[in-house]
Amino acid sequence: MTLPEHKSEQPPALTQGLFGYIDRVSEAPLDLPVEVKRQIDGRARRDLIKVILSQAVVGFLVVGLSVAIGGYSAGLSALAGFASYFLPNTLFALRLLLGTYGAKGTDFFVFFVGEFAKVLSALVLLFLVGRFGGDRINWLYVVIALIATLKSYFLIMCVEGIKR
């Protein structure tokens, strides 16, 4: 018994992706009305600023609580954990914010390279904290501040939920 031959040609509207067939993506940019582009850019700017402000609020809250609970050394440790993510993320958000003012915006390649650089920078800063902080670093406070800064978007969700 022989099986019928299968044509290997792909349908014209689809292309072979890594995990199977995916829709073909047009290389032409969307032709949106100017007013819609302004609205999208305005919302992106507000959201980027909200993320940075929420990280700052949560980070400094954790630093203040750390000083109150564990003293000056715990506060410095929490500040190091907070800053190791906040600084790279703020620089990346500022880059994205500047992209909203350009005619072209920020393409996906710039976004992913920036995201990679942000994560790598955070890891390097954490390494430097451990390298130069030595025994003065209280890693519990570093990790708590880092996690609180990473998860600060919960503050945005809570505030947005209260508004509704």
Automatic annotation (TrEMBL):
Its main location: membrane. GO terms for cellular component: plasma membrane. It is found in: Cell membrane. Pfam families: ATP-synt_I. Keywords: Cell membrane, Membrane, Transmembrane, Transmembrane helix. The chain crosses the membrane at residues 48-72, 78-97, 109-133, 139-159. The keyword Transmembrane helix applies. The keyword Plastid does not apply. It is a multi-pass membrane protein. This is ATP synthase protein I. The lineage of its organism: Bacteria, Pseudomonadati, Pseudomonadota, Betaproteobacteria, Burkholderiales.
